[in-house]
UniProtKB/TrEMBL annotation:
Keywords: NAD, Oxidoreductase. Pathway: Amino-acid biosynthesis; L-serine biosynthesis; L-serine from 3-phospho-D-glycerate: step 1/3. The keyword Transcription regulation does not apply. Residues 359-428 form the ACT domain. GO terms for biological process: L-serine biosynthetic process. It catalyses: (R)-2-hydroxyglutarate + NAD(+) = 2-oxoglutarate + NADH + H(+); (2R)-3-phosphoglycerate + NAD(+) = 3-phosphooxypyruvate + NADH + H(+). Belongs to the D-isomer specific 2-hydroxyacid dehydrogenase family. Its EC number is 1.1.1.399, 1.1.1.95. This is D-3-phosphoglycerate dehydrogenase. GO terms for molecular function: (S)-2-hydroxyglutarate dehydrogenase activity; NAD binding; phosphoglycerate dehydrogenase activity. The keyword Oxidoreductase applies. PROSITE patterns: ACT, D_2_HYDROXYACID_DH_1, D_2_HYDROXYACID_DH_2, D_2_HYDROXYACID_DH_3. SUPFAM superfamilies: ACT-like (SSF55021), Formate/glycerate dehydrogenase catalytic domain-like (SSF52283), NAD(P)-binding Rossmann-fold domains (SSF51735).
């Protein structure tokens, strides 16, 4: 492992590491902030585990209020609205971990949190089914022209016609991003009798009768319905732009329940205007209202054949309750036991119980010799190590050491002084 540390250090440029130190307190002193209406199941998990200092808010907080709230907070829970950037982190000196109570983690600067030794956790598939079901429903409604017929009926108009109304059976569904949601959507669509093709940048196992498209453009050219299930990355930004729209099969349906940056809204509005696409369902937008009180602005509002939903793809009672439990359990585990298993930004270390021992968690810059210095501290303080676990990424290393209770405080103090230390915690 030491060799791996050394090699990675040599080939990666040095990143700016922000050194802050935190220790573990009594549970009632650990402040947990849960924002954006995170399901009550999360608070219940924390309370059941003895955490009582819990602040909740039904919405995201304005930046100044958020900074104030985070000044003495140890754990932060958010959904997709709260943006966590280096500026915010500089106002959260005690922050130990962040829970994204959703799938996407693009709202958090993952490198900045990594360099501060703050693990970020999410719920990678607790709302997968909810998104897939919404997409399926929207697809059926759009193929039947229901949104425009319904909007007309609300205005007193009666469009009893089969024109431009189709079954899903036998139609081709093109899935862009064949991950958890993409595959789940494909399976459900096949059960309706659709033919499924997908485009992914990774080589993927095709489930059921699905097949990989030759290219993104080939998928667009041959699909009756196109649905996006990619994360927000540099590659997916405006993936569906003016050029991509030129490849869409005449009269196709377009669905985006991934991230608002993936589909260029002006290009979509243009395609709707010219009739190049026959309808759309959009759940996510480049700029979304910060609260339910803010007006939603979009050039798509004028189109009856567009289903507009307020980023609720994953918002079902089932999904939110499950996400609340899953993410809070990960945060509790990190707090109580030090486990970073399934963290999206820090080296993953799965840990057994440390009953009868004190556990010292040390997050540090991944540089040559640091592991030796850590173990020097233990040997020079005559500390007997009963177990040690470690994992590294290009930038940071995470070493967890279980030691006898009698010698833990002295060793802990010495470990904090090692150059390159980012964060230390002692778990009793
Ligand atoms: N509307 C909502 O409420 C929700 C939205 N989401 C969004 O859906 C996204 C997808 O979720 P999952 O399926 O769980 O993620 P996933 O990580 O399981 O799958 C994403 C897939 O996209 C592929 N991909 C990445 N870049 C690509 C590119 N440039 N071209 C083609 N494929 C690419 C990946 O290889 C992967 O297979 C999330 O990142 C999140 O942003 C997730 C849940 C709820
Ligand atoms: O529920 C939310 O606030 C966001 C859902 C979402 O987009 C996700 O899980 O990535």
């Amino acid at each position: 492992m030491l060799a791996a540390l050394t090699i990675l250090h040599k080939i990666r440029p040095r990143k700016k590491i922000v050194t802050t130190q935190a220790t573990s307190f009594n549970k009632d002193k650990i402040k947990i902030v849960l924002l954006e209406g995170i399901h009550a199941s999360a608070e219940k998990v924390f309370r059941n585990e003895g955490y009582t200092n819990i602040v909740t808010a039904a919405k995201s907080l304005p930046v100044d209020e958020l900074k104030e709230t985070l000044a003495d907070a140890h754990f932060l829970g958010i959904r997709s609205r709260t943006q966590v950037n280096p500026e915010l982190l500089s106002h959260a000196p005690r922050l130990a971990a962040i829970g994204c109570f959703c799938i996407g983690t693009n709202q958090v600067d993952l490198e900045a949190t990594e360099l501060r030794g703050i693990p970020v956790f999410n719920a990678p598939f607790a709302n997968t089914r909810s998104v897939a079901e919404l997409v399926l429903g929207e697809m059926i409604l759009l193929l039947r022209g229901v949104p425009q017929k319904s909007a007309a009926a609300h205005r007193g108009e009666w469009i009893k016609s089969a024109a431009n109304s189709f079954e899903t059976r036998g139609k081709i569904l093109g899935i862009v991003g064949y991950g958890h949601i993409g595959t789940q959507t494909g399976i459900l669509a096949e059960n309706l009798g659709m033919k499924v093709q997908f485009f992914d940048i990774e080589s993927k196992l095709a489930l059921g009768n699905a097949r990989a498209a030759e290219s993104f453009h080939q998928l667009l050219e041959t699909s009756d319905v196109v649905t996006f299930h990619v994360p927000e990355t540099d590659l997916t930004k405006n993936m569906m732009d003016e050029t991509a729209f030129k490849h869409v099969k005449q009269g196709a349906i377009l669905i985006n329940a991934s991230r608002g940056t993936v589909v260029d809204i002006d290009s979509l509005a243009n395609a709707l205007k010219t009739g190049a696409v026959n309808g759309a369902a959009i759940d996510v937008f480049p700029k979304e209202p910060k609260s339910n009180q803010e007006e939603f602005l979009s050039p798509l509002r004028e189109y009856d054949n567009v289903i507009l939903t307020p980023h609720v793809g994953g918002s079902t009672m089932e999904a939110q309750a499950n996400i609340g439990i899953e993410v809070s359990e990960k945060l509790v585990k990190y707090s109580d036991n030090g486990s970073t298993l399934s963290s999206v930004n820090l080296p993953e270390v799965a840990l057994p119980s440390h009953k009868g021992k004190h556990r010292i968690c040390h997050i540090h810059q991944n540089e040559p010799g640091i592991l030796a210095r850590i173990n020097d501290v233990f040997s020079s303080n005559n500390v007997n190590i009963s177990a040690q676990y470690l994992q590294t990424s290009a930038n940071v290393g995470y070493v967890v050491t279980d030691i006898d209770q009698a010698s833990s405080d002295k060793a802990f103090e010495a470990l904090k002084q090692i150059p390159g230390t980012i964060k230390t915690r002692i778990l009793y």
